[in-house]
């Protein structure tokens, strides 16, 4: 039987197996039209019969399972918030005297549909106490018929709706499962890979996932499907990397005695071991006749820009041009100023590829007409070797003489289409690509999202970087609150500068509404840039201190003026949103105050505090919060307080995140096609899959040996997934 039979079976219309009425219902509720769609509608959990507990013997504060009949239902509105409480009273015939137990469901739309008087169901939950009686709050349940009451197997609980309750889903799945066989769902993972983990074959895994004999079999089947997705994803990325290696690029080897060597000789400091090692990796990549695709990650201030500049000069020495793409105009302008300063006389252009230096141009959306015309001319003629800019570099008017290298700073801030548009400007030969990020990336995310990029890491900070002390400030204590403001004035009195970061711009109700819908358990009215600026200006101790605001609602010219003034020391305290999170580099800034710090994520907080202590002066980060010390969000702040290791914090950040756009959902404009694999929970599976794929790709005849795997991998990555992988 060929793999085509599997594809045909999974692509078959549901009506062929379930009848047109049932198929139409599934399509209306879930959008499912094929057998494969419905087969991958996996249970979210299982209720296991085990040893049932009589109601009269329920232990308080323990998890129990009971089988009981609904004898009464009621509904009442909640007073403190919108919604209703649906209460169910059940009776357990196993206990003498017909003992009763109450069940409580908040906004229990599904329970209201399923649990009518007379219904027999299995309930599973933790025993609590309410108004002098025991109850189960929000229990899991499964409605039982006579057959299932006699069947000791675990009962699957599916994602359901009022129009498609769990029992109906189980019944429909029961109609479909008898059609599954090894012939129409043949295995495609290599036998040795499957055997090494003792995973069931594919058709058996579907059966065990939907109708397990024991609950352990369901979880083994779940592992198998998660591994399958990890394996196919890693195979797609590996194949993508292999294809990139066959595409043409112009080799840009080091050229002795030119700009790169002259630049290194004039540096006033020694490069770190990490910078030299990573630089050698990049230089070797650039010397190849196929395109480099490398991810460069390192802490804020670790010297990524120096490493990138060495690569840029190597490409210019070899006759190419380089484009540095920045996410904001502020950061693009700062890159332009700092690189011009580092290059000195080497930023004075001669004839392209022959003179003493090279042109460096800045191109942003707010550039004036004359400045823009001059930049475009230098780019097109080749006189300008390095072009720094934002999305403006993607415009049709921008024509490169010979684009050899694209450096993307903070890659996650650009859509894949935008990056692809710039890369397309290089003609037939692809440019080399270097992606930089100051956000440490956990290993599994790097393997999954950046699996087709080689990764280089700068872990050690350059000598001279001052330590940053981080402290939580409990704002409900007036002494701490006053000390927060005193620390600001103390730093200013020493001639230093201060950042104050707020989670939002204004106090408008609309913006507050957006904020409250974005974060869990809001701590009330949060501080805004507008309110903080006004508050500081009205406090006597801040009289004579120069305070300015910076946020995204300012136009690009205003933002640049404020940042330039802060960089020149003309502003003492900059009150800002996270617009300063990436790339703003002011060496005289020594204090970072983050208001309502619980509103920010771990990686974001780490990025923010990296803005201080960059000029050899000790830095301090104060994270304010009105929450109690034992609140979960404060525990997260304590994690930040306890370590400066960005990679350790990245793992902690990943551990607390919900599954979501880690695979680039926002960039690709679609939901991830992964159904079982969790980047957060399945780290071990991802690493195992990567190792198996690496071994597979080393086999010269693997495609001939595993044709089913090739076909399945091609069918798995739908067009939008392929587009995402190709452009990422």
Automatic annotation (TrEMBL):
Keywords: ATP-binding, DNA damage, DNA repair, DNA-binding, Helicase, Hydrolase, Nucleotide-binding
Residues covered by the Helicase ATP-binding domain: 285-458
GO molecular function: helicase activity
InterPro entries documented for this protein: DEAD/DEAH_box_helicase_dom, Helicase_ATP-bd, Helicase_C-like, NA-bd_OB-fold, P-loop_NTPase, RecG/Mfd, RecG_dom3_C, RecG_wedge
Helicase C-terminal domain location: 480-655
Cross-referenced Gene3D superfamilies: Nucleic acid-binding proteins, P-loop containing nucleotide triphosphate hydrolases
UniProt xrefs under SUPFAM superfamilies: Nucleic acid-binding proteins, P-loop containing nucleoside triphosphate hydrolases
Protein name: Probable DNA 3'-5' helicase RecG
């Amino acid at each position: 039987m060929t793999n085509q039979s599997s594809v045909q079976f999974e692509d078959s219309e549901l009506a062929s197996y379930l009848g047109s009425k049932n198929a139409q219902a599934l399509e209306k509720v879930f959008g499912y039209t094929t057998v494969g769609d419905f087969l991958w509608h996996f249970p979210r959990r299982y209720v296991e019969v085990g040893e049932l507990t009589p109601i009269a013997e329920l232990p308080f504060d323990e998890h129990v399972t009971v089988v009981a009949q609904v004898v009464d239902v009621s509904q009442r509105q909640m007073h403190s918030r919108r919604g209703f409480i649906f209460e169910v009273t059940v009776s357990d015939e196993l206990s003498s005297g017909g003992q009763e137990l109450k069940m409580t469901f908040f906004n229990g739309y599904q329970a209201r549909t399923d649990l009518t008087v007379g219904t027999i169901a299995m309930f599973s939950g933790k025993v609590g106490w309410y108004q002098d009686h025991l109850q189960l709050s929000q229990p899991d349940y499964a409605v039982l018929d006579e057959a299932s009451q006699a069947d000791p197997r675990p009962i699957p609980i599916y994602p359901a709706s009022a129009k498609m309750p769990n029992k109906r889903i189980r019944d429909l799945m029961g109609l479909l499962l008898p059609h599954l066989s090894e012939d129409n769902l043949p295995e495609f993972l290599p036998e040795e890979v499957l055997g090494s983990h003792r995973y069931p074959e594919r058709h058996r895994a579907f059966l065990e996932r939907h109708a397990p004999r024991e609950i352990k079999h369901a979880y083994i089947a779940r592992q198998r499907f998660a591994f399958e997705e990890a394996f196919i994803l890693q195979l797609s990325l590996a194949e993508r990397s292999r294809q990139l290696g066959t595409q043409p690029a112009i080799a840009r080897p080091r050229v002795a005695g030119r700009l790169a060597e002259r630049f290194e000789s004039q540096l006033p400091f020694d490069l770190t071991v990490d910078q030299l090692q990573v630089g050698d990796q990049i230089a070797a990549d650039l010397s190849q006749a196929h395109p480099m695709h490398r991810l460069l990650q390192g802490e804020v201030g670790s010297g990524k820009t120096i490493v990138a500049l060495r690569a840029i000069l190597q490409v210019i020495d070899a006759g190419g041009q380089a484009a540095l793409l920045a996410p904001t105009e502020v950061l693009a302008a700062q890159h332009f100023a700092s690189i011009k300063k580092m290059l000195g006389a080497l930023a004075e252009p001669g004839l392209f590829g022959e003179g003493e230096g090279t042109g460096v141009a800045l191109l942003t959306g707010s550039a004036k007409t004359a400045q823009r015309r001059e930049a475009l001319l230098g780019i097109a003629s080749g006189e300008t070797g390095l072009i720094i800019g934002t999305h403006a570099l993607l415009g049709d008017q921008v024509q490169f003489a010979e684009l050899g290298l694209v450096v993307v700073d903070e890659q996650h801030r650009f859509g894949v289409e935008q990056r692809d548009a710039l890369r397309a400007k290089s003609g037939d030969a692809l440019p080399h690509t270097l992606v930089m990020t100051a956000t440490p990336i956990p290993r599994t995310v790097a393997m999954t999202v950046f699996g087709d990029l080689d990764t280089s890491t700068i872990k050690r900070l350059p000598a001279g970087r001052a330590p940053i002390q981080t402290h939580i400030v409990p704002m409900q204590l007036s002494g701490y609150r006053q000390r927060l403001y005193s620390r600001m004035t103390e730093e200013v009195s020493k001639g230093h500068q201060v950042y104050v970061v707020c989670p939002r711009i204004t106090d408008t109700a609309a913006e507050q509404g957006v904020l409250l819908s974005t974060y869990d358990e809001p701590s009330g009215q949060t501080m805004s840039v507008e309110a903080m600026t006004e508050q500081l200006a009205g406090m006597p101790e801040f009289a004579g201190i120069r305070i300015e605001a910076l946020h995204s609602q300012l136009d690009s010219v205003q933002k640049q003026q404020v940042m330039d003034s802060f960089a020149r020391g003309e502003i003492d305290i900059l009150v800002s949103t996270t617009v300063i999170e990436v790339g703003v580099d002011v060496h005289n800034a020594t204090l970072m105050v983050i208001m309502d710090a619980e509103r920010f994520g771990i990686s974001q907080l780490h990025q923010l505090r990296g803005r201080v202590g960059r000029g050899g002066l000790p830095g301090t980060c104060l994270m304010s919060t009105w929450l109690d010390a034992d609140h979960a969000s404060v525990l997260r702040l304590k994690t930040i307080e306890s370590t400066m290791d960005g990679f350790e914090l990245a793992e902690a950040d990943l551990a607390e995140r919900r599954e979501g756009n880690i695979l680039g959902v926002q960039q690709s404009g679609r939901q991830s096609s992964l159904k079982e694999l969790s980047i957060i929970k399945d780290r071990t599976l991802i690493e195992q899959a990567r190792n198996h794929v690496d071994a597979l790709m080393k086999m010269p005849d693997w495609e001939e040996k595993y044709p089913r795997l090739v076909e399945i991998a091609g069918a798995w990555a739908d067009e939008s997934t392929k587009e995402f992988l190709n452009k990422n």
